[in-house]
Amino acid sequence: MIEYLNVEYNLFIISILSAFVLALVAGPVFIPLLHRLKFGQNVRTDGPQSHLKKTGTPAMGGLIFLLATVIVCLVFSKDKNMMLVLVSTLLFGLIGFADDYIKIVKKRSLGLRAWQKIAAQLAVAFFLAFVAAGVNQVGTSVLIPFTGKFFDFGIMYMPFIIFIIIGTVNSVNLTDGLDGLAGGVTVVVLGFFSVVALVSKNEGILVFSGALIGALLGFLRFNSHPAQVFMGDTGSLALGGAVASLAVMTKLSLFLAIIGAVYVAEALSVMIQVLYFKATKGKRFFKMSPLHHHFELSGWAESKVVSVFTIIAIILCLIGLLAI
What percent of the chain stands above pLDDT 90? Predict the structure, then answer.
């Protein structure tokens, strides 16, 4: 057991370091390229006024950590579970890339139309759920937090998992609104899955988690405040896909309510804001949504919001480990 952990631990560390170095090298290559291609972010005028100065900052930076992750994963593992998670992550990233491309290059502010985005996400979610349950033999049961028991969803597994995947992907997307926020929180969540993979001897999941952790840490060198590059929907949808895929493959979908509570809070804040606005004919529950903007407008510095949300994510993931 100890010998196995030593081998897997070394592989995990090497995956992190390799992806970290690759992302550090890729950053100075991609960022000037994105500048030359004029792939600059169009900042919304109805957002916090302090964000207007970010207009023109290159977007689509998610390509930096995705490239590093792909290279490291393919070099260090051929595990079928890892391949499914990697492919699902890239497919969601591809949806995000199309959305970014239309927004930035085609100058269509809303990107993909809502029905196009949802249809594409549903297709990838169905693919992940179907292959995981069937070909990869993950099965239709999920672990219930704090009980140690599994619940078999049976024929309801597919709709349940598709709902979880779509919800997670879009919640992570909403979290990407401040420099380093989505990346920092997701590094912590990936740490949770790394511990699970190490204990359960799941080499493929461990390599993927390590690679994406390292790649994100390298990317945060350029994305931390003040950001030199944004991950864009290319990155945020891919991260959501990665987190959702890992949850599916480890049978921990229900745990996302705990370890991903920061994502959930961001999504709920948007829903509450919209419903409250309609119900009160124009009043707002939050100063602005998603939730991170509420704290910004309450006087918190952007870096403080990111730090506090990341600390909360750490505590939640520790609780998640206790819940297994």
Answer: 81
